[in-house]
Here is the input.
Amino acid sequence: MKKLNKKAFTIVELVIVIAVIAILAGVLIPTFVGLIRKSRVSTDTQLVRNLNIALAEDGVNNEHNTMTDVLAVAEDYGYLVTNLNAKAKDNEILWDSANDVFCYLNDGKVEYLPDSVKDGKKLEAGDYRLWKIYNKAPTDGEGYSIYVASQAAADYVASNEVAVGVDCGEYLIDAVSYKNTGAAKNDVVIRTNNYNTVLTVNAPSDVVKHYGKANKVDVIAVACLSYHEHGDVLGNVTLNNGRVVVEEGAKANAVYVDATAEAITAGTVTVSADNSKEPKVPIILRDYVKEAADNKGGNNSIPNPATENVIVLSDKVTETNPETGEVTKTEVTAIAYNKTTKQNYASLAKAVAEANSGDTIIMMNNETTSEPMINITKDITIDGNGYTYTNSNKNSRIIAINGVPDGVYKSYNVTIKNINIVSSYTGSVAINNKEPRGIVAYQLSGAKINISNVKVDMAKDDYTYPVKLLYVENTEVNIENSYLKGANCIECQYINNCEFNIAETTLYSNYTKEKPAYRGNGINFTSTCSNNKITFVDTLFMSDGNSDHFDIDGVYNTVNGELVDIEED
Here is the structure.
């Protein structure tokens, strides 16, 4: 029998084989990695070329002012935002807003594909005119303008003063603050998309262009080459120092010039406003500001009130006895101004009481009072101008649209906008059922009520209603971009055949006790209500007594006080 002899590798042979494999790996792996990266770079560059073809074709007929504009073009050509990230590690696909082309950041160097630009010159890495899609929080000092494409990026913008352009994308950000107090003179774009957004601009040397929706804009400082409003501002654009231009088609409640005469005279502040383009947004300022700007001249420029939509307010009002003509109070601080009659008033209630049908009343200062109510018995517009009206009367209907006086149903057309209404009474209010109400409408038929950019904050109690309607029929009620806080945010009794349109509004119930069905609601219709149509658009319901906060969209009807989902034809 033969013995089989099996020969194995020696240790030396194994070491040699391992060494050879290691050498081959050291040579080939970087080659493979390089080939993979080269392939990914090639994919990226081809994407950038295709994007630029799309932009060029669309740019023949359309301007691209924001990154949202160019991403919409990309999507039309089949490229989604989620797919516009570079495949090669640490590289980026950027949009050059100065030349309106996409470019490619490859190993820290900006490449243009094709290797040309329409106008101007090529930009280098870190330039604020290059826009980056941020799928995570931006890094401080990176230098690129921010397209918000993630919650982390939205949180970063909301909590920081940014020194680059911002496009909020599809994210709703309540506060955007742009600040650049350095020597650099930048020309930046900011786009917001939310009527709750407060935009603050503090950039003495910069030109700032705003697009999209905002609640209000505070221009602390901007260059004399201007803050340009291209969008839709629900409240005021407030100017402290610099120049504001309202561009064609842009909207705002007003441009409010808020500067001191001393600063204008000393030359530390310049104020200039241009509302020459349609629709002509009103410019509001104090008489002493207008006088100081006219006297100083130079870059100070306010249109002529005699020919343009300019409202010049006086800070003081002298009250007289209407029967004797005797002066009863001298130089009382003015609270309200009648735009039609150009008269000042020491209280909002008096301004409304003495107004004629169709007049517009503008608040000039905050007011705190314990008077029972502002009584509206005519067509009127109340523009709070961003100020706060505080009432401490426990039985108060703060603002009453009142058809009661002669017992005949009235058809008033009333607009209340840009005002904060606060009930400061904190005691028990369940006295003779005379509960505090923010805005109450009573005994109306064929009326129209518009509530826009209004915040009503009622004291926490069983019987507080920011808005209450009682004995109202065939009336249109529009509530938009508002915040209503109370036990029941909208309380309706004996309401029939009315149409409610509630859009981009928060209904916040602060009722926290164990509640019956008729307490702690965003909107409450009693069984006495019928055949009312309610349309909700982006309406948020919140409650102290319930952790569930939810948005609602849709069309409803009232049946025995209940909201019933219906479909439009």
User: Anything to note?
Assistant: The chain is about 15% helix and 40% strand. Residues 429-433, 515-520 have pLDDT under 50 and may be disordered. The radius of gyration is 31 Å. The CA atoms of residues 219 and 451 lie 26 Å apart.
